Every structure is written in C-alpha cells, then in structure tokens.
Amino acid sequence: MNTIIFQAFRASVVLGVALFVFVNDALAAPVLTPATATRVTENSATIIGHVSNPQKNSTVWFELFDKSGATTAVAVQGIWNDGTFEWNLRDLNQGETYSFRTAAMEGGVTVYSPTATLTTVSPKPVVVTTTSTPVVEKATQTTTKAVETKKATTTPVVTSEGFTNNNGAALIGAGSGMFPTTLIGWIVLLIAILLVVLLGHMVQVSIEERKKALEEKKRKEEEAKNE
Hints:
This protein has helices spanning about 1-25, 185-225; strands spanning about 30, 35-40, 45-65, 70-90, 95-105, 110, 115-120, 125-130, 140-145, 165. The chain has two domains: about 1-30 and about 180-225; about 35-125 and about 150-165, Immunoglobulin-like. Strands 1, 2, 3, 4, 5, 6, 7 and 10 form an eight-stranded antiparallel β-sheet that branches. A two-stranded antiparallel ribbon has the order 8-9. It is an alpha+beta fold.
C-alpha cells in the first residue's frame, strides 16, 4: 500500500512540475509598449521604451532604421519584471525624420514594438535688416539681407554617453492578499489543492482497509474462542 501511495505522489509531482514549466514558458514572452520620443531639438532627441514581463528578466534594446531600412541595435540591457529604458540620440540632421522601435527577448522569444518616428526641429530663416546712414544729397537706403542657414550633412551618430537607464523594475512579490495575482500562481495553487485531495483520499482508503483487517482478525479470534 505504501508503494502505491509513493508512486501516485511521485507521478503527481512530476505532472505538476511539467505543467508549471510548460505554462511558465508559454507566458514568458515580454510585452512592450509603443516607443516614444521626447525632448526633440534640431539635432538631438530622447527615445523611450517600456517592457513588462512579470517575475522574468528581459533583455531589451532599441533598433534604429537607416534610409535603406536596415536596423542598428543600441542600448542593450537587462530589466527584471518591468521597467522604462531611454536612449539619447545626438548629432542628428535638422528637419529630418528618423524611425525606431524597441525590442525585447526572454526564453528564446523576441518581440518588437510598433515602429515609431520622430522629426527634428527645422530652424526658421533668420532675416537681418541693416540700415545705412545716407550721405548728403542721397536718400536713406535700406538693405535687407537674408541669412542663409546651412543644413548639416553629417550622418546620424549614436553616442554611448547619452544613455540613461531609468529601470523602474519592481522586486518579486507574492501579491497583496492571500490569493496569487498571476495565472501561473493560480495554476500552482490548483495543482497543490489536487495533490492534497489525492493524498487525503489515499490516506482514508488506507485507514478503512486497516480497520477492516482488524475487524476480520477480531472476528476470527472470537470464532476460535467459541470453538
């Protein structure tokens, strides 16, 4: 009887662990919010991403697109649970549009946010008006000269000094109440309840069999005394 109980318990544990691993892998993919840009100037900008992957560590980065559509990965880092990450772009061209997105990987699964764009500020033409002092017998002359603005032709360069890590990752927690707060937690709780019910049933069956054996033994002893 003890051997049967042990085998049933071992099978239940193996089944529970396998189910937990399967569900854990299925829900391991991180979630990215759409990437955004802030503090956009004529030649710089800050791009921002956010990742969420409960009780997991995700590797995140930004991907910058060039004119041909090829991507360049920058700001690779790891974030536990969830957090916001940023990257400063510098030496950008004035009035030019740039495309970018965020990426995250965990457990062999890689996800990407939708592609976002930003356009640097275009400088307004500066008009300088100069007035010359007329000589005698000549009318006042006013000369208006437009100052030509030279557009930068440098290739966008990402500098490592611009990186700022605002990792707002929260530590692992068990929830605010007596019940789990994640799907994985509920599955583990249900498996534990099933194991307890199974073990209780097996113990009850074992007790009843022992009681029957004792009653049978007592009945045979009384029959032997009567003979």
